[in-house]
Batch of 2 targets.
Target 1
Amino acid sequence: MRCPKCAGERDKVIDSRTVRGGDAIRRRRICLKCGHRFTTYESVAVPALQVLKRDQRREDFDPDKLKRSIAYAVAKRPVPPQQVEAIAEDIRREVEEERGTEDLVPSTVIGQKVLKRLETLDEVAYLRYASIYRRFRDAAQFFSEIENLIGRQ
Ligand SMILES: [Zn+2]
């Protein structure tokens, strides 16, 4: 492991312990060139998460795309960009936590998570997102969704 201080390439492990409940190993190392001590972590490489779309195609889960879709829904609404950022990060973490050993998550699962948050955040943004991700079959369905929102107040 290259020393972060002097870029020397020889080191010695001086301590090794499991962390994160056994999911990772933490190693203290000492650079044999300059004596600098540094830490490395080792964990099982997790395969990239993929999204299963409605048309059964798969694509890599892209947190930026998730963020953009939320930003699009809240455009010109009184929602600060930091909040969009926070929601996207929140969902990304949730999806990663729930995946378990799965490497595939249905796009609808992600869509539902976004909807759940937008619902309490901004109704216009919620409807915009819903109209895209639920693909309302017709205007009637769209208006019944609006009625649901109004009825809840
Ligand atoms: Zn060094």
Note: Residues 50-152 form one domain.
Target 2
Amino acid sequence: MLIQTSLPLIEQMALERETENQRFVEELKTMNSEEVDAKVQQLNTAVEPQINCTQCGNCCKSLMVNVTNEEADNAATHLEITREEFDTRYLEKGSHELMIMNRMPCAFLSNNACTIYEHRFAGCREFPALHLPHFTRRLFTVMMHYNRCPIIFNVVEALKTETSFLPNLPE
Ligand code: SF4
Ligand code: SF4
């Protein structure tokens, strides 16, 4: 499997493949969800070790992460600051008690590495979440990140081959 890791190229290919990807998403919705999950998880296991997240860091640069109360408490304790200070420095509070990190790239990213790695938030731990079930119910979110995450890009492209999907012919 040829792995693509260049973010500019991935962004460009995502633009070129917009129509093709819409068609692929519609096809995936008609497939057996458990069979798709098995394929995605298998491909994810093959792709993930071939991509060095510390050379990418793009999710930490371009996503607003949700933070729970408990996670904020843990991070504040780890940083040895008060919870009030943590909230002022790092969080933005939305409606319904929702809290998100207040800046992009994330304040805890340094040289493409997470400086609170052991205490990072659930959203960070899970991303890009291809190991989770119900891939076909999460297609909107997955495809929203196809142009920014090399793991997602490569797994989706390999999934096209695995499912014998016919790509658009070049115009
Ligand atoms: S907390 Fe760490 S893993 Fe999460 S977005 Fe920030 S730098 Fe990335
Ligand atoms: S999870 Fe994806 S976007 Fe985040 S660092 Fe790894 S390859 Fe890059």
Note: The chain has two domains: 7-59+128-162, 65-126.
